User: What shape does this take?
Amino acid sequence: MWIYEKKLEYPVKVSSCNPTLASLIIEQFGGADGELAAALRYLTQVWTMPIPQAKAILTDIGTEELVP
Amino acid sequence: MNMNRKDFLRKIQELEFAVIELNLFLDTHPSHQQALADYNRLTQELMNAKIMYERQYGPLTNFGYAPSQYPWQWALTPWPWEDDYECKEDMACGYMKKS
Assistant: This one.
């Protein structure tokens, strides 16, 4: 189970409207090789990991990448 | 301690950022004693900071991880994506605003 924290991991300040940058960011976040896809891959691949270190790192990186 | 909300939150973000990185390092280096000592020290500091923050400004986590004042603060305090993530007058951000 995951717990939502009502804050960002790192502070973000959006100071201007920039559609070109926005389109890059949305691709990086939700696109084919974005964070969302990676997070779900980590959290699924973890079930086949043979050693404790791999189970731990995939669970934690998957968790960290999951939430924007 | 009487830091304003944003500075306090920034402090928590700094601590948590360090704790996350140490956590990820320890996942693949479980016997690294120095990293573990740093992790435990910063975790204690982070836990204390979160308790004090939540007492003043409302819960950072729900589902039983932190109590709420009246009214239910989880729904009424600002969300990270909202403009400036500020505590507005009509939000139930804790005792600080009223006094």
User: Anything to note?
Assistant: The mean pLDDT of chain A is 93. Residues 39 and 62 of chain A are 4 Å apart (CA to CA). Chain A touches chain B through 16 residues (CB under 8 Å).
